[in-house]
């Protein structure tokens, strides 16, 4: 663990424990005291302060397993350094019962300012791609690997991706789409745990180890297409495969 990472301190650990308690109810973890709300290890060492009321041990499983409660945890997350420069954490948006989910890299300037994913120029292109597939943007679900903007739109570091990935995986589990499109290298590398370039991965159906029932298609990120419009034809081939999986008429 890197020096200065929020998980170094007891409060950072408490936040992470809070997230795990929230999203993995059956996991054996230190639980807050019923009297004081403090979190203590088995030996009695205190590792965290009382939980917020909405995330306390008394939360109902229905509430604690929802996208809404996960979004609240993300909005307050300080697990990595990206929290210190963000305006808004960008949780993701769309149909919570979507059959099709898109996953990108992380928020850019427009997304950071608005708190919504894919709203800049790349987002406009993604919206057109979704339309070409026969869906409206609100029919699908759109999320990113990291929820906070990396300064200068740099690629998120491995430690930042590792801190944030449990949120995305929980989102995927809650939405449980039939198909997922991974947009660009960062999304593909993070979720597939394969260190191959997107140009080799794209266009080939794959799956996620944790979610074997979801059909997954890696393809280029819309931001790449803005710089390399010729690659749009390859992406359209990839998206047509996905349309076939979902019973949509292919062009
Ligand atoms: S990028 Fe993810 S892990 Fe890092 S602070 Fe934001 S929500 Fe938390």
TrEMBL record:
Chain residue ranges for the region called Disordered: 44-66
Recorded GO MF terms: 4 iron, 4 sulfur cluster binding; metal ion binding; uracil DNA N-glycosylase activity
InterPro entries on file: UDG_Type-4/5 (IPR051536), Ura-DNA_glyco_family4 (IPR005273), Uracil-DNA_glycosylase-like (IPR005122), Uracil-DNA_glycosylase-like_sf (IPR036895)
UniProt-listed SMART domains: UDG (SM00986), UreE_C (SM00987)
Hydrolase keyword on record: yes
Single biological process term from Gene Ontology: DNA repair
Domain of life assignment: Bacteria
Residue ranges of every copy of the Uracil-DNA glycosylase-like domain listed in the record: 91-240
SUPFAM superfamilies linked: Uracil-DNA glycosylase-like
Low complexity bias locations: 48-66
Enzyme Commission no: 3.2.2.27
Keyword line: 4Fe-4S, DNA damage, DNA repair, Hydrolase, Iron, Iron-sulfur, Metal-binding
Entry keyword annotation includes Metal-binding: yes
NCBIfam families reported in the protein's UniProt record: UDG_fam4 (TIGR00758)
Family recorded in the similarity comment: Belongs to the uracil-DNA glycosylase (UDG) superfamily. Type 4 (UDGa) family.
The protein's name: Type-4 uracil-DNA glycosylase
């Amino acid at each position: 663990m890197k020096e200065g990472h929020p998980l170094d301190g007891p409060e950072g650990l408490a936040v992470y424990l809070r997230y795990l308690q929230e999203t993995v109810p059956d996991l054996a973890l230190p639980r807050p005291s019923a009297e004081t709300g403090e979190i203590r290890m088995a030996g009695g060492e205190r590792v965290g302060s009382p939980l917020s009321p909405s995330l306390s041990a008394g939360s109902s499983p229905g509430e604690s397993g929802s996208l809404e409660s996960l979004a609240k945890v993300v909005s307050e997350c300080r697990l990595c350094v990206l929290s210190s420069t963000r305006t808004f954490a960008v949780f993701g948006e769309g149909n919570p019962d979507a059959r099709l989910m898109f996953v990108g890299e992380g928020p850019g300037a427009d997304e950071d300012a608005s708190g919504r994913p894919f709203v800049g120029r790349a987002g406009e292109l993604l919206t057109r791609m979704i339309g070409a597939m026969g869906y409206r943007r609100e029919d699908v679900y759109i999320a990113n690997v990291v929820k906070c903007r990396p300064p200068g739109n740099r690629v998120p570091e491995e430690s930042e991706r590792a801190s944030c990935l449990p949120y995305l995986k929980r989102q995927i589990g809650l939405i449980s789409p039939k198909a997922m499109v991974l947009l660009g290298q960062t999304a593909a590398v993070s979720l597939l745990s394969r260190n191959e370039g997107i140009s080799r991965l794209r266009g080939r159906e794959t799956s996620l180890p944790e979610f074997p029932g979801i059909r997954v298609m890696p393809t280029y990120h819309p931001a790449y297409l803005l710089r390399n419009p010729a690659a749009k034809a390859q992406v359209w081939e990839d998206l047509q495969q996905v349309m076939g999986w979902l019973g949509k008429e292919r062009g």
